[in-house]
Amino acid sequence: MNKGNICILMLLISLFFVSCVIDVSEVSKAESDGTENRDNIDNKGSVQNDESDNQKIGDIKFDAGVGIVRPDKPVIKLEQGDIEKLKIFIDNTNAYKDTFELIDDQYGRVVNEIRTYSPKNKDDEEERSKSSRYFEIIKERLTKLNENNLIEKFKKLEEIIKKSTNGVYDPQGLTTEVDKFKETVKKALETLSTNDAFVAREAADSYFNALHAAIIAYIDTFDTVASTLSSSEFTEAARKLALATRDFANTQDNIYAFRVIIFAVRGLVSEDGDMSMAKRAIRLIHRHETEEGQALLAAIDNLQSVYYKDKL
């Protein structure tokens, strides 16, 4: 090999060596930058916040902004902790169901009799409402509604709701309607006369408004609990069920609407997703052909489907 060729070969080897050194240096720098970036992310709290949020989401104490569905919430499966949280909700609200049904059982008939014997409006003073016999019935039923025991039961519903979310959800609508009911009954007893029996009808209507508010409070509490679960898909399905139940409750007797949402929630937790009782309850009262009934049936089917799909 002549001297010129040897020089060229040495030059090529030198260039190759320099190139390798540069490549190794760039890789080391990139790895160093990546580590620094990750450290910066940790310091800023993004990764730490995700871990913190997961802990809060799984905590029944609702420390993580209950009721707010984050747009960036990842679509993941329901975890066992989520199922346990729903079970805790059911356990915490068992007394709510019992108290609600006790109110309806003890006072529903009383209210219906007031509505039967009192005029529908101020211009509809029927003769029967002016008779002494019917007047005494109305007065007696109003006195029954004025019992402290009834107000205490309504207040118990408020306390159960607050306790089930550790005070995060405040059933203000229920509180307002219960206070209105108390005042309306008191006013009706003070102003009731054979010529003004309509005030009794107003008291009866106020009772139903309070019961309706109790249903909405339960629905909203379930929606609040569902919003803290891992699966954003389940959270959205639960929200649709809550909205559909609200609409259904606006057109249906309170006790039936309440049983539908109770059966739906309990079916998920206690019957491993079997919500057939909720759907049967809608059909038994012949509401499955109404717009609200169909929307609620669709929401139940959707939640059931998501539950089976997302459950680990």
TrEMBL record:
This protein's record includes keyword Oxidoreductase: no
Q: State the Gene3D superfamilies in the record.
A: 1.20.120.1640
Q: What is the recorded name of this protein?
A: Lipoprotein
Q: Entry's InterPro entries?
A: CRASP-2-like (IPR054523)
Write out the entry's keywords from A to Z. Answer: Plasmid
- Which residue ranges have biased composition labelled Basic and acidic residues? 32-42
Q: Where is this region: Disordered?
A: 32-54
Which domain of life, per UniProt? Bacteria
Does the keyword section mention Hydrolase?
no
